[in-house]
Design brief:
By secondary structure, the protein is α/β, with parallel strands linked by helices. The protein has 2 domains: about 30-95, Alpha-Beta Plaits; about 110-415, Zn peptidases (Aminopeptidase, 3-Layer(aba) Sandwich). About 35% of the residues lie in helices and about 20% in strands. The strands form 4 sheets. The protein has an 8-stranded mixed beta sheet, with helices on both faces. A 4-stranded antiparallel beta sheet has the order 4-5-3-6, with helices on one face. A two-stranded antiparallel sheet has the order 1-2. α6 (about 185-200) crosses α13 (about 395-415). The longest helix has 21 residues, at about 395-415. The site of zinc ion has 3 residues, from loops.
Length: about 425
């Protein structure tokens, strides 16, 4: 997003101290609308709107007639927005008048209340804290090794760890934070990593010690830093592009049916796929690392938010994968297990049908190119009824971590029963 050129976002000066002032994107008086998809034609209009500009922020997806979803609209686009929807008889209603309020509350809390220097799951952490914590794990546990899985445009490390209790284990890759604003994703994956190392629960110990875990909590580090410092709702990378744009959607940039579905070729769009596949150094470098694990990783799980879904390939077509029935059975058992602790309800299915057509995503590339047959994408809490799900209250981090770990145990056990980790 080009703040100055498009003036999508009002820019304010936030002075953290007398000497340090940074420009911060603000969403004062940005309303949030709930939109209902009434027909296939309306869905097409809404998809075009999503891909048209960054003045509309689609907070979560919807793909079926009857689905509702929430959109943030920049004040200068309000007239266009309502006119387009009215012309196509699309049902919509305002559910929040001022998006900025919840962002302000979160910022105040993080700056004033959080205990600095302690890594726990009572609140969200910035990139340095996550990286320092990963380093500390390697010093503390002999089974942990820090790995640089790649790097970012602004030259930050895509840092992760490998947890291996014994040689010859099948590998499982956990990817988090590819979309910068989805803060519950790194928080959940660090929670899971901590449990893999410390839990005394027998089922958790079994999966922890009988698999090698490759855990990458923040694979879009520039974007994540940007959401902490400048724009809480940033989604993409931060590569500059002609026309004053920044960033591509790193989950539309992988070289598998790139740019075919659910992506935009306009650089200011939230779903801009980039000028070519792997244009982003983040996806290019990380994919090289993942390729180096070919044969070693047998499951790949990406964590996003929000709307409580468990998705599996493909995203570029409604055609089913060869192991669709297995993926569907495993997903069914996984969401059942997730619901046990707190009653959190997930739905599941192949990406194309269960959320929306979207190609060039990491999980599809891993499935389609590397032949990793167990490939899932979680859309974590909250449900799609929430109006600002990226700003999830921190008291939900631990429950989200707990139920997601419960479900991950089932996902691994069920896929193992089906023979996916036998050599
Ligand atoms: O659109 C996305 O990239 C994901 N949804 S989100 O709201 N977090 O942006 C869904 C990803 C679907 N996964 C694949 N196509 N593999
Ligand atoms: Zn996402």
């Amino acid at each position: 997003m080009d703040l100055l050129k498009t003036s999508r976002v009002l820019v304010a000066l936030l002075c953290i101290s007398a000497v340090l002032c940074v420009e911060v994107a603000r969403y004062d008086n940005y309303p949030v609308y709930e939109v209902t998809i009434g027909s296939a034609d309306q869905l097409r209009v809404l998809q075009e709107l999503r891909e048209s500009s960054d003045s509309y922020i689609f907070l979560h997806g919807g793909s079926k007639i009857g689905d509702k979803f929430n959109v943030v609209v920049a004040p200068h686009k309000l007239a266009d927005f309502t006119e387009t929807l009215e012309n196509d008889y699309i049902k919509f209603r305002m559910i929040e008048e001022n998006l900025q309020q919840s962002i302000d509350e979160e910022r105040t809390r993080i700056e004033t209340k959080r205990t600095k220097g302690v890594f726990d799951w009572t609140d969200y952490h910035d990139l340095n804290e996550i990286h320092d914590w990963l380093d500390s794990l390697a010093s503390e546990y002999q089974h942990v090794e820090v790995i640089e899985g790649g790097h970012s445009y602004e030259n930050r490390s895509i840092k992760g760890v490998k947890v291996s209790y014994k040689a010859g284990n099948p590998g499982i890759f956990l990817e988090a934070g590819i979309h910068a604003r989805e803060w519950i994703s790194p928080a959940t994956v660090t929670y899971i990593l901590n449990e893999l190392l410390t839990s005394e629960d027998q089922a958790v110990r079994n999966i922890a010690e009988n698999y090698d875990w490759y855990v990458f909590p923040s694979v879009n580090p520039d974007g994540y830093v940007y959401t902490h410092k400048k724009d809480r709702l940033w989604r993409k990378t931060r590569t500059p592009y002609k026309g004053g744009c920044f960033g591509a959607d790193p989950n539309r940039n992988w070289d598998f049916h790139w740019a075919e579905q659910g992506t935009s070729n306009r650089c200011n769009s939230e779903t801009y796929g980039g000028p070519h596949a792997f244009s982003e150094v983040e996806t290019k470098s990380l994919s090289k690392y993942i390729e180096s694990l070919k044969g070693k990783i047998q499951a790949y799980i990406a964590f996003h938010s929000y709307s409580q879904l468990l998705l599996f390939p493909y995203g570029h077509t409604g055609e089913h994968t060869p192991n669709h029935d297995d993926l569907n059975d495993i997903a069914e058992a996984t969401v059942k297990s997730l619901a046990k602790r707190y009653g959190t309800r997930y739905t599941y299915g192949n990406i194309y049908d269960a959320i929306y057509p979207a190609s060039g995503a990491s999980a599809d590339w891993v499935y389609g190119t590397l032949g990793v047959k167990v490939a899932y994408t979680y859309e974590l809490r909250p449900s799609s009824n929430s109006w600002n799900g990226f700003v999830l209250p921190p008291k939900q981090i631990i429950p989200t971590g707990e139920e997601t770990l419960d479900s991950l145990v089932t996902l691994v056990e069920e896929s193992a029963k089906k023979g996916y980790y036998e050599n």
